[in-house]
């Protein structure tokens, strides 16, 4: 006998047993047919959404139109297709000073992409994919990616002419994104176009790693919104050269009123005392973000720093909007 579940199913079993005990055959068959009809009706009713609950692929509790059905969600039944993931290339190669936090930093970008589902990540510790030449097997070139994150990529990268042209075109002509973390500013001093693209070069870290007094100059920028207007951040803050406030949107700077200018590293602090530590800018059609944060392993474990780089990548990939307009100092 086929097993039926629920109260209606128990009715069917009871009636079947009653027929065996001597109930009139015609009466038993009539009641049994009625019970089976109830089973079929209950099954059909279970397939219909309960008002206010929605169906799979619809927001629970949503009410979008008659019947109380939830609004369709991307990728769900009856909803629009899911938003395709972007592609991020993260490079952690160092040819100059090697930072011990580099592995932690590279892994953080991978984790942020996976958890947010905004991008997938390819990780390299060389510059082989910085090219427009066709790639073989499962390799890629720059054309595959929507943004490039450079993590502590110090020193002379020794790119050939084609690679330099490809990287500049990736941002300037293709409109792709560039995110630079900490020591990516300490690179390619013989390549002026690199400094023009990223906003400057590393000059020094006048106060080393310390509790840096920070002013957030553009709290509307996506990567800055979660920070208070003024705060202290324990990290190593770079002082840039070949840099001009007129060419970037300063997002964060050191509060010069709280810096000890009697004890910086010799000849390392900027004469104008304009110590920007994060900025956004355009390079041609592409978006560029730089932050000095990320010297220590502890920095990459800081949720606020992780949030900053998450939002920076999203902005560079054009998932969000934020200013690149230069402005005077904000206090």
Please specify the SSE layout and strand pairing.
Layout: H1 6-20, H2 25-46, E1 86-91, H3 102-116, E2 119-124, E3 147-151, H4 161-172, E4 177-181, H5 192-198, E5 201-204, E6 209-216, E7 230-236, E8 239-241, E9 249-254, E10 276-283, E11 286-291, H6 297-300, H7 303-316
Parallel strand pairs: 1-2, 1-3, 3-4, 4-11
Antiparallel strand pairs: 5-8, 6-7, 6-9, 9-10, 10-11
Helix pairs in contact: 1-2
Explain the overall architecture.
The chain has helices at residues 6-20, 25-46, 102-116, 161-172, 192-198, 297-300, 303-316; strands spanning 86-91, 119-124, 147-151, 177-181, 201-204, 209-216, 230-236, 239-241, 249-254, 276-283, 286-291. Helix 1 (6-20) packs antiparallel against helix 2 (25-46). Mean pLDDT is 81; it is low at 1-28 and 41-69. The strands form two sheets. Strands 2-1-3-4-11-10-9-6-7 form a nine-stranded mixed β-sheet. Strands 5-8 form a two-stranded antiparallel sheet. Helix content is 27%, strand content 19%. The protein folds into two domains: 1-42, no CATH class; 86-316, Class I glutamine amidotransferase (GATase) domain (Rossmann fold), CATH 3.40.50.880. The longest helix is centred in the first third of the chain and has 22 residues, at 25-46. A hairpin with a 2-residue loop joins strand 10 (276-283) and strand 11. The chain is built from seven helices and eleven strands. It is an alpha/beta fold and 331 residues long.
Give the integer mean of the pLDDT values: 81
- Gross morphology is globular
Task: Please name the fourth-level CATH homologous superfamily of the largest domain.
Answer: Class I glutamine amidotransferase (GATase) domain
Radius of gyration: 30 Å
Strands, total number: 11
Gap between N and C termini: 82 Å
Secondary-structure element series: HHEHEEHEHEEEEEEEHH
Q: Which class of secondary structure composition applies to the elements?
A: alpha/beta
Largest beta-sheet characterization: 9 strands, mixed
Beta fraction:
15-25%
CATH topology of the largest domain: Rossmann fold
Low-confidence stretches: 1-28, 41-69
Tally of distinct domains = 2
CATH hierarchy: architecture of the largest domain: 3-Layer(aba) Sandwich
Provide the spatial order of strands within the biggest beta sheet: 2-1-3-4-11-10-9-6-7
**Percent in helix:** 25-40%
CATH class of the largest domain: Alpha Beta
Treating each run of at least 4 consecutive H or I residues as one helix, how many helices? 7
């Amino acid at each position: 006998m086929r097993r039926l579940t629920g109260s209606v199913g128990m009715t069917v079993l009871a009636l079947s047993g009653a027929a065996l005990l001597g109930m009139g055959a015609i009466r038993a068959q009539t009641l049994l047919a009625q019970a089976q009809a109830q089973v079929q009706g209950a099954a059909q009713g279970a397939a219909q959404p309960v008002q206010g609950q929605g169906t799979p692929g619809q927001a629970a509790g949503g009410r979008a139109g008659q019947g109380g059905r939830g609004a369709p969600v991307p990728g769900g039944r009856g909803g629009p297709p899911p938003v395709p993931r972007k592609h991020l290339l993260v490079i952690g190669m160092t040819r100059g000073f090697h930072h011990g936090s580099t592995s932690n930093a590279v892994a953080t970008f991978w984790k942020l992409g996976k958890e947010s589902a905004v991008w997938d990540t390819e990780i390299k510790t060389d510059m082989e994919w910085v090219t427009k030449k066709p790639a073989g097997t499962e390799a890629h070139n720059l054309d595959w990616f929507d943004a490039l994150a450079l993590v502590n990529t110090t020193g002379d990268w020794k790119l050939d002419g084609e690679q330099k042209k490809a990287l500049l075109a990736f941002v300037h002509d293709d409109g792709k994104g560039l995110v630079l973390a900490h020591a990516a500013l300490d690179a390619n001093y013989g390549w002026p176009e690199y400094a023009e693209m990223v906003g400057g070069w590393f000059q020094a870290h006048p106060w080393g790693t310390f509790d840096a007094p920070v002013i957030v100059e553009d709290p509307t920028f996506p990567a800055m919104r979660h920070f208070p207007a003024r705060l202290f951040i324990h990290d190593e803050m770079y002082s840039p050269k070949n840099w001009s406030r007129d060419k970037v949107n300063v997002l964060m700077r050191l509060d010069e009123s709280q810096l000890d200018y009697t004890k910086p590293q010799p000849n390392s602090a900027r004469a104008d005392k304009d110590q920007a530590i994060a900025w956004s800018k355009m390079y041609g059609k592409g978006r560029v973000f730089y932050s000095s944060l990320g010297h220590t392993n502890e920095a990459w474990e800081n949720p606020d720093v992780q949030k900053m780089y998450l939002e920076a990548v999203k902005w560079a990939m054009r998932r969000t909007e934020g200013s690149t307009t230069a402005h005077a100092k904000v206090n």
